[in-house]
Amino acid sequence: MEAAFEREVVGDKRAAAETAYALACRYRTEYSGSDRHPFSIAKEWAMRSIELLDELPADTVEQVASTRMSVGGVDLPELLHSGVVRERLADLLQSEW
């Protein structure tokens, strides 16, 4: 999924934000296999998602509608904007990791 994010971030920021959100959710619940705590990695992906979403227009429902139902096995919210990410991943964003 990280490779997909790198491709998407160049040409489709909404898709990249969705993938970053999915990565945050996955790292939040799954062991990463690295020396770093999974929460710290998840937090970075959550912040990337928020940064990308903050760059996109969010004035209408169409502008914040997810373009996919799921990414990497993670169900996406029907409407995805930075406020949704902040709310759903608040534990990550407030953590000290």
What's this, in brief?
The protein has 97 residues and is mainly α.
What does this structure look like?
The chain is mainly alpha-helical and 97 residues long. The protein has helices at residues 2-11, 13-29, 38-55, 61-64, 82-88, 90-93, and strands at residues 70-71, 74-75. It has a two-stranded antiparallel sheet with strand order 1-2. The protein is globular. The model has no long low-confidence stretch (mean pLDDT 94).
What's the total helix number? 6
Shape: globular
Mean pLDDT: 94
Parts with pLDDT < 50 across at least 5 consecutive residues = none
Strand order of the largest sheet: 1-2
Largest sheet: 2 strands, antiparallel
Distance between the termini: 22 Å
Query: In total, how many beta strands?
Result: 2
| Oligomeric state, counting identical vs distinct chains | single chain
Strand content: under 5%
The residue fraction in helices comes out at: 55-70%
- Radius of gyration (Å): 13 Å
- Structural class by sheet pairing and helices: mainly alpha
Instruction: Give the SSE string.
Output: HHHHEEHH
